[in-house]
Design brief:
By secondary structure, the chain is α+β, with helices and mostly antiparallel strands. It contains 6 helices and 9 strands; from the N terminus they run H-E-E-E-E-E-H-H-E-E-E-E-H-H-H. Helices cover about 30% and strands about 30% of the residues. The relative contact order is 0.20.
Length: about 170
């Protein structure tokens, strides 16, 4: 596995080299993932998908280990160690730059009002040429609300998914 320590700007630049040409038409689609994605591959996982222009956002909330492993079936070029990292509940923050994708693990603070302290919540990002996959436990309201806002507000959708995966990640 090729690994180079990069800052986020450099990582975003890596994605830019693989972006396809933009399409003029726009299409918004939200659905549950229970249909066949690739030839002969049926994935029963419950996730939300948002498609706009040439960018797709797959938001996977609180997945089972089988659903995480299905990502390897859907995207066979994802390294098995990255799939293993997605399965780990306490992976260290990191970024792996591969030929076809970038895998990022980030931790975000979440306030626990009962214990009166901040706890860490992990989000895994799989950044492809034309798709971003977020994998998380669903407890980070800003991330959940952003996805929901994209489904109801065309200007938010255009601002977030209207340019490129690198722009989506940066925003």
């Amino acid at each position: 596995m090729a690994f180079r320590p990069l800052n986020i700007s450099q990582a975003i630049g890596c994605v830019k080299n693989y972006l396809p040409e933009k399409r003029a038409c726009a299409k918004i689609e939200e659905k549950s993932f229970s249909s066949t994605i690739r030839k002969g591959v049926s994935l029963p996982m419950a996730l939300k998908t948002l498609v706009y222009k040439s960018i797709k956002w797959l938001d996977i909330r609180n997945p089972t280990p089988e659903e995480i492993k299905a990502i390897g079936t859907l995207y066979p070029f994802v390294h098995p160690l990255n799939i293993e990292d997605m399965l780990s509940p306490n992976e260290r923050p990191k970024m792996d730059v591969e030929t076809d994708y970038i895998f990022i693990v980030l931790h975000f603070p979440l306030w626990d009002a009962v214990e009166r302290l901040t706890r860490s919540r992990e989000v895994n990002f799989l950044v492809l040429k034309t798709a971003i996959i977020t994998i998380h436990d669903g407890s980070l309201k800003p991330l959940v609300n952003l996805f929901d806002r994209c489904t109801s507000d065309p200007s938010t959708l255009d601002r977030l998914l209207g340019k490129s995966t690198e722009h989506t990640l940066y925003t």
